[in-house]
Amino acid sequence: MNIIDLTSxxxxxxxxxxxxxxKQPLGGPLLVLLSDPGSKQDVxxxxxxxGYRYENVSHCAGxxxxxxxx
Length: 70
What we know:
This protein is α+β, with helices and mostly antiparallel strands. The protein is 34% helix and 34% strand. A 4-stranded mixed beta sheet has the order 1-2-4-3, with helices on one face. InterPro entries: TusA-like, TusA-like_sf. This is Sulfurtransferase TusA family protein.
């Protein structure tokens, strides 16, 4: 599984990095780690709008983990 750690980034940078990662061939699910409150809202909204399947895997210590399916 591919992992993209965006916990040190705030929106809109976290969203831009995710968009770039999703343009690459993944070959499987992508685990996205988020900590910024804006990113926690904007990233799921973007994924839903673009038709990506995702699930909230964990929300622990202020970090949200989303599993995104290509």
